[in-house]
Specification:
Largest sheet: 3 strands, mixed
Helix content: 40-55%
Shape: globular
Number of helices: 6
Strand order of the largest sheet: 1-3-2
Radius of gyration: 15 Å
Number of strands: 3
Distance between the termini: 25 Å
Strand content: 5-15%
């Protein structure tokens, strides 16, 4: 591969990788996953980091913001849509530090982990969907 002309993946590239992860989900989950708003940013906003008790923006690769489906009620009136945030720079930093995983696989893993919060999945559920360790 010619590296002298390559640039780092941008926000749109990371979003495309996450969209590919949605498309790769079992059919039963694709529609519901596509209804969650996907936001890709360079880093988590300072207020989000503070709320989580984090000082370093590199410590957060993704976040689910919303009410898990297992906890929602028809009486709930959402103020904002359920959202999965992916943070490009921390993801790229983890990718480089690992050195042994494809970037699209890492993005997919982070996305599925955050989606697990939306669906209220157990660790066993996640393992059936995201065979990360293989």
């Amino acid at each position: 591969m010619e590296w002298t002309t390559r640039t780092a993946p941008d926000l749109a590239d990371i979003e495309a990788m996450a969209q590919a992860a949605i498309a790769a989900l079992p059919e039963a989950y694709c529609v519901a996953a596509a209804e969650v708003v996907l936001r890709v940013e360079e880093f988590a906003p300072e207020a989000m980091l503070a709320q989580m008790g984090l000082e370093d923006g590199f410590d957060l690769t993704g976040l689910y913001e919303g009410i898990p489906l297992t906890e929602k009620s028809v009486a709930d009136q959402p103020m904002v849509p359920d959202t999965i945030w992916l943070f490009r720079r921390p993801i790229l930093d983890e990718w480089v530090a690992r050195g042994d995983v494809a970037l699209a696989d890492l993005v997919g893993h982070v996305f599925v982990h955050e989606l697990a919060h939306h669906f209220g999945w157990s660790d066993a559920d996640i393992a059936r969907i995201d065979r990360w360790w293989e």
